[in-house]
Design goal:
Elements lengths: L4 H20 L8 H14 L3 E5 L5 H8 L3 E6 L2 H10 L5 E3 L12 E7 L10 H11 E12 L4 E7 L2 E8 L3 H11 L1 E9 L10 E8 L2
Parallel strand pairs: 1-2, 1-4, 2-3, 4-5
Antiparallel strand pairs: 5-9, 6-7, 8-9
Helix pairs in contact: 1-4, 5-6
InterPro entries: Methyltransf_25, SAM-dependent_MTases_sf
GO molecular function: methyltransferase activity
Keywords: Methyltransferase, Transferase
């Protein structure tokens, strides 16, 4: 099966920026009270049991969730990001993989984190990712996703000091909530906050959802 062009472009972009991305965002979590609060709530809900940081990038949130006591591993589309994650967090497991076809057994996860993992996928393909997330999360398990709020596509030509080519989609909260609901989740909480400069220009959303038992 031929890989969609946007998937290849996303992989190449993140391979290109992996080192710079990890360095620039190294302290971002320490600077965001809201991010830590939402992740802390997710950690309380999702444990015990295995948790997947799906779209983990350089593993900064994987490491944070591990520090909160979760049995967590990371998966990312970009081999470059996974290389950085393995080097930074040698005690944790990281694998290269696609959210559209995860190498995870049905219902294996107590929780799944999709932190800005859906933003490079065109709207018509979002149900595919939501269905895959629902497949790997156990009945009664939890999902936390975060994304930029909006209703447009951003064509990225430069990021983290590198020339790249990728699209990022800003998404309406009701749209993402509906896609998750159709996939078999019940959205339990939603939070929309204002952007935190200098890295953000749009409102940011968090949705916490539970897989239907």
């Amino acid at each position: 099966m031929t890989e969609p062009a946007y998937v290849s472009a996303t992989r190449t972009a993140y391979d290109t920026v992996a080192e710079s991305y990890a360095e620039l965002l190294r302290d971002a979590l320490a600077e965001s009270t809201w991010d830590r609060a939402v992740l802390g709530a997710f950690a309380e809900l999702a444990g015990p049991g295995p948790v997947g940081d799906l779209g983990c990038g350089p593993g900064r949130l994987t490491g944070y969730l591990a520090s909160l006591g979760l049995d967590v591993f990371g998966v990312d589309l970009s081999p470059g990001m996974v290389e950085v994650a393995r080097r930074t967090h040698p005690d944790l497991r990281f694998e290269v993989g696609s959210l559209a076809a995860l190498d995870i057994a049905d219902g294996a996860l107590a929780g799944a984190l999709a932190w800005y993992s859906l933003i490079h996928t065109p709207r018509p393909d979002l149900p595919v990712l939501a269905a895959e997330l629902a497949r790997v999360v156990a009945p009664g398990g939890w999902l936390l996703t975060a994304f930029q709020v909006g209703d447009e596509v951003r064509h990225i030509e430069n990021a983290y000091g590198h020339d790249i080519r990728a699209d990022a989609y800003r998404l309406p909260v009701d749209l993402v909530s509906g896609v998750l609901t159709d996939a078999g989740f019940v959205v339990q909480a939603r939070l929309v906050r204002e952007p935190e400069p200098p890295h953000e220009k749009t409102p940011q959303a968090y949705l916490t959802a539970r897989k239907v038992a």
